[in-house]
Design a protein that fits this description.
about 80 residues; alpha+beta; two-stranded antiparallel ribbon; 5 strands; about 20% strand; elongated
Amino acid sequence: MPDAAVQSTDADIVTQPAPAVRPPALARRVGPTLNPAVDPITTRLTHHHEIDGVTYAPGDELLVDPEYGARLQAQGYAQL
Protein backbone atom coordinates (compact mmCIF):
# COMPACT_ATOMS: atom_id res chain seq x y z
CA MET A 1 0.00 0.00 0.00
CA PRO A 2 1.58 3.34 -1.04
CA ASP A 3 2.05 5.95 1.61
CA ALA A 4 0.23 9.33 1.41
CA ALA A 5 3.17 11.19 -0.18
CA VAL A 6 3.30 8.82 -3.17
CA GLN A 7 -0.42 8.44 -3.87
CA SER A 8 -1.72 9.27 -7.33
CA THR A 9 -3.03 12.78 -7.86
CA ASP A 10 -5.46 11.77 -10.60
CA ALA A 11 -8.29 13.34 -8.60
CA ASP A 12 -6.60 16.73 -9.02
CA ILE A 13 -6.60 16.62 -12.83
CA VAL A 14 -9.20 18.93 -14.35
CA THR A 15 -10.23 18.25 -17.91
CA GLN A 16 -11.66 20.77 -20.34
CA PRO A 17 -14.46 19.86 -22.73
CA ALA A 18 -13.27 19.21 -26.26
CA PRO A 19 -13.75 22.19 -28.58
CA ALA A 20 -16.57 21.87 -31.07
CA VAL A 21 -15.45 20.60 -34.45
CA ARG A 22 -15.92 23.27 -37.08
CA PRO A 23 -17.56 22.16 -40.30
CA PRO A 24 -15.59 22.75 -43.49
CA ALA A 25 -16.44 26.39 -44.21
CA LEU A 26 -16.19 26.15 -47.96
CA ALA A 27 -18.65 23.26 -48.07
CA ARG A 28 -21.61 25.61 -47.69
CA ARG A 29 -22.55 29.27 -47.58
CA VAL A 30 -22.39 30.80 -44.09
CA GLY A 31 -23.97 33.93 -42.70
CA PRO A 32 -27.07 35.68 -43.98
CA THR A 33 -28.15 35.02 -47.54
CA LEU A 34 -29.26 38.44 -48.70
CA ASN A 35 -29.80 37.44 -52.32
CA PRO A 36 -30.02 33.68 -53.00
CA ALA A 37 -29.81 34.26 -56.78
CA VAL A 38 -26.26 35.67 -56.46
CA ASP A 39 -23.34 33.26 -56.26
CA PRO A 40 -21.40 33.37 -52.98
CA ILE A 41 -17.85 34.68 -52.80
CA THR A 42 -14.85 33.38 -50.87
CA THR A 43 -13.55 35.60 -48.11
CA ARG A 44 -10.72 35.08 -45.61
CA LEU A 45 -11.23 36.10 -41.98
CA THR A 46 -8.65 38.36 -40.36
CA HIS A 47 -10.03 38.01 -36.81
CA HIS A 48 -11.99 35.44 -34.80
CA HIS A 49 -15.65 35.74 -35.70
CA GLU A 50 -18.80 33.82 -34.79
CA ILE A 51 -21.30 33.20 -37.57
CA ASP A 52 -24.45 31.13 -37.11
CA GLY A 53 -23.20 29.91 -33.71
CA VAL A 54 -19.87 28.63 -35.10
CA THR A 55 -16.61 30.35 -34.17
CA TYR A 56 -14.15 30.72 -37.03
CA ALA A 57 -10.45 31.53 -36.63
CA PRO A 58 -8.33 34.08 -38.49
CA GLY A 59 -7.31 32.66 -41.85
CA ASP A 60 -10.45 30.55 -42.31
CA GLU A 61 -11.94 30.90 -45.77
CA LEU A 62 -15.72 31.16 -45.96
CA LEU A 63 -18.34 31.20 -48.68
CA VAL A 64 -20.53 34.23 -48.02
CA ASP A 65 -23.05 36.41 -49.78
CA PRO A 66 -21.20 39.26 -51.60
CA GLU A 67 -22.99 41.97 -49.59
CA TYR A 68 -22.21 40.20 -46.31
CA GLY A 69 -18.58 39.80 -47.39
CA ALA A 70 -18.37 43.52 -48.08
CA ARG A 71 -19.78 44.26 -44.60
CA LEU A 72 -17.26 41.91 -42.98
CA GLN A 73 -14.45 43.64 -44.87
CA ALA A 74 -15.71 47.14 -43.96
CA GLN A 75 -15.80 46.13 -40.28
CA GLY A 76 -12.27 44.71 -40.47
CA TYR A 77 -13.21 41.06 -39.97
CA ALA A 78 -12.30 39.83 -43.45
CA GLN A 79 -10.46 40.46 -46.66
CA LEU A 80 -11.98 39.62 -50.01
